[in-house]
Amino acid sequence: MKKTVLYKGLMLTALSALAFSSCQREEDDLWDKSAAERVNESISIYEQRFSSSKGGWVMEYYPTNSGEDPTGIGYLILADIKADGSVRMAMKNIVSDGVYVEDTSLWQIIRDTGPVLSFNSYNKCIHEFCDPSIYDLGNGLGGDYEFVITDMQEDAQIGFVKGKKSRAYIRMIRLAEGTDYEQYLDSVNNFQATYFSSSAPNKLIMDFAGELKYMDEASTTTPNIYPVNGDPISDENYQVFIISKRDGKMYLRFKDALPVNDEIGKVQEFVWDETLGQFNGVDNPACTIKGENPAQFFADQLNNNGAVWTWNTKSELSDSIATLFTNLGNQLKKVNKNYAFSSMQLKKNTKNQVVLVVNYTNNRKATSCSYNFNCEALENGNVKLTYIEPVDNGSANIKNAIEGISQMIDILDGEVIVASNGNNFDLTKVRITPSDAPDAWFVASM
Predict the structure, then answer these.
(1) Which of 45, 126, 356, 444 is 20 to 30 A distant from 423 in Cα terms?
(2) Which top CATH class is 47-179?
């Protein structure tokens, strides 16, 4: 009996020793490199990854996590990161006073609690955001020049870093080899100025899978987003976005993802659809950003907001309208050699009536005649203009004498198609086309 117990004891001791030996070997394999060696290895890996892009990178740079202008809005900084430790940076924005700025300095991956991308010698581009002597004295724009690397996979087209102080996330997008930095920035800036113009009179519409929201003050890149039937103050929701370009397409990305519904979740990035003239959600195409309906906007502005829509010989006109204007000018001179045609307008007069106004001069003194219309937005997306009568006897007499005025009244009297003039995001100009006379179109300016 004692021998059996002794034998079992020896077997347990041997098995324990074997198990310990096995675990020991696993730990030796797992920790065969020191912490310093592992950090050095990761530094080498990230140095290679950042310098591997032959065209460099676009940094969607946010100086801070605030939403205020100018500290919280987004800026594009282009960075050509080289394996020799040099970096060429470029920008063209309000911080550079709208002037293209390019500078070369040094960069490296440094050791911290983790690998950190550091632009560690002065560069006029990125360090301008960190200068405490500008803007808010002592704080500057609150920007970073050192970034904790959060995601930069091998051969990745997109990676993320985070400001060491601000904790603001920065997206980095790989640029194609041979990218001209100034041309890239100009193309983005020109696109933004065209589709997010500060002079645009209309709001933008965000369609979140059927739920409509206004995107107001979009030219600031910090629009107020609130429900179409809501209130811009009590429902205010300011969100920051930035425009960048990749693969020849323009992208709009909000700094923070926006909630949609339980089925879709959130949406953050949109891509420009040139054919439809709108932004479509990258991951959720049911979410879009587009301009207001031009016909509804035209009618609302004319009926309710005192807008004046004007067209003249210098406007974009079909051949038939251009000919009508030429003939109208000649007809005016036949009535009185001192008459000269100026323009036509749709607006509300002092009696709160919608009128077609024909403006002309008499010995260079401005004068006009007017004709009453009704204006109604139709459910089919068009506008119905209905001629009523001349405003006064003088206008009636001019109409009888000038065939061109009667012709324009006839063209407008009925259903018209009101469309954007190629840019739904800025309805300063609309193209008006009679539904029964497609060759008689003209562009009216608000």
Answers:
(1) 356
(2) mainly beta
